[in-house]
Amino acid sequence: MGKLETFEILEPGILTTIQDLGRYGFSQFGVPPSGALDTFSFRVGNLLAGNREEEAGLEITLMGLKVKALREAVIAITGGDFSPALNEEPLEMWRTHLLVEGDIIAFRKVLAGCRAYLAVGGGLAVPKIMGSCSTYLSGNFGGLEGRKLRRGDILYTPDTPAPLDKLGLQFPRDWIPSPEKETPLRVVAGPQNHHFTEKGSQTFYSSPYQVTPQCDRMGVRLEGPEIERRSDVEESIISEGLISGAIQVPGDGKPIIILTELVTGGYTKIATIISADLPMVAQLKPGDQVRFKPISIEESHLLLREQEERLKGFRKIIQASSPCRK
Amino acid sequence: MGLYPKTQFYLMGDRGLLLEFGDEISREISEKVRRMALAVQAEGMEGIAETVPTYRSLLIVYNPAILPIQGLKKRLNRIEERLQQTPLPEPKLTRIPVVYGDAYGPDLEEVAKYHRISPEEVIQLHCSKPYLIYMIGFMPGFPYMGELPQALETPRLKTPRLSVPKGSVAIAQRQTGIYSIRSPGGWQVLGRTPVELFDPEKDPPALLQMGDFVQFYAVSEKEFKSWENLRPLKSWSPAF
Known about the structure:
The complex is a heterodimer. Chain A folds into two domains: about 5-175, no CATH class; about 180-295, Cyclophilin-like (Cyclophilin). Chain A has four helices and 19 strands. Chain A has helices at about 40-50, 200-205, 280, 295-320; strands at about 5-10, 15-20, 55-60, 65-70, 75-80, 85, 90, 95-100, 105, 110-120, 155-160, 180-190, 210-215, 220-225, 235-240, 245-250, 255-260, 265-275, 290-295. In chain A, strands 12-18-16-17-14-13-19 form a seven-stranded mixed barrel. In chain A, strand 6 and strand 7 (about 90) form a beta hairpin. Chain A is globular and about 65 Å long. Chain B is α+β, with helices and mostly antiparallel strands. Chain B folds into two domains: about 5-85, Gyrase A, domain 2, CATH 3.30.1360.40; about 95-235, Cyclophilin. In chain B, about 25% of the residues lie in helices and about 30% in strands. In chain B, the strands form three sheets. In chain B, strands 5-12-9-10-7-6-13 form a seven-stranded mixed β-barrel. In chain B, strand 3 and strand 4 (about 55-60) form a beta hairpin. Chain B starts with a strand and ends in a 10-residue tail after the last helix. The chains are: A alpha+beta, B alpha+beta.
């Protein structure tokens, strides 16, 4: 299948990368999943753009991205609100739009969240590496040449007709996660919760923690009260596998939330954030506040199922909106 | 304590299950990890996204919508019960050429001084035996190997380097490893290998695998460079 020039990057912003839903099965070779951090917004964006949920799109960190359409394209912007504009007019998020050649989209100002997603009909055309289009920044592969986007980059989409039947589609407003002053994050205790004292656990679950500037696709370092460790256990453990959402507590007693670009680590993990709340972690930026709440694994699986049901519900709305689609 | 009489299951959130087999770094525990990882992979269970074998544990990343946790635990128990019948592939030995010292191994002299031996003796010790690959982690294709001869046990650098070149062969405590890509790092760098440890275009992408062995041998700078010249041709084969 041919591909066509669809976007030109006029300004790359702080950090814009090509992502999909990640590269799984390669952690055993030291390759972390990578992929969109807020998978919920990412998947909704793709559905709005008439794609399968896993199609490659842009992950935009905070502000500054400016792109020019080089041809007609159907797009949707989801995730964090950076006041996107189309030719300097505000552009509604969580809804399908048609761009024509010469249109310019700019992300002007951070209103909420940390990561926005731009999905385009047909998806971005980049080679799949180990089954995925996701950019793995520290590994220097995936996405566009394994790097963040630069000024002058040209992005391609497959040579397929724009999915015009999706225009005007909108994601139900009350299903959009709304940012809060203090983000509640639900966790399942462990795997090393037994390395901490009763008092340490209490500190962890009763105190607010603040996001520091050390916050990227590998992890989010938090500032707050020190979590007390048992005196008879060592600060570090023998290195073991990691997943997104694992909360490491290194020697200084300050938690670090692990994200999608790490595979192994040797610090104790007091708890792990549930899958359904990971999209909220993706939207944290320096200065934001979080609070942790323990729940059972049964409850966490129920919450994940609820989130999937919402997406399923939306898929049904989309299918119903285009009965004539071939 | 060593190998636990009963494998411990720990939850890592709602899609990670950590099987812990022991509380130390040992060949016995490593073999159990490898056996279990291979057996789980051979089972081909639908809903398993990752199996991550490390020194003394195996992390299983699963999709709870496809594979409920209780069912997963039961199947893992069953796999473990018949683990001894699972044939283990004969470990492979890969010989890795290294140019030691100078700009390639900036810490060789210091390591020698630390142990009050000559740099040549450090090289000899480092090449003296095959090392078991305990795990691949930290970065794509990075092998954690051991045990170094006791006479080479060396602490990490006090201040980690911001950038360690790709191919750097390094040691820390009783471990040795190879930086498969350029990255920050705190291990003591003894030399550099021209061998590619990771190639995203290959299947599997990592040259080395957990449970296999590596033995280093010293080469001259000239040999190192001739290896490097071969690299664009991708003519490297593990049978050298």
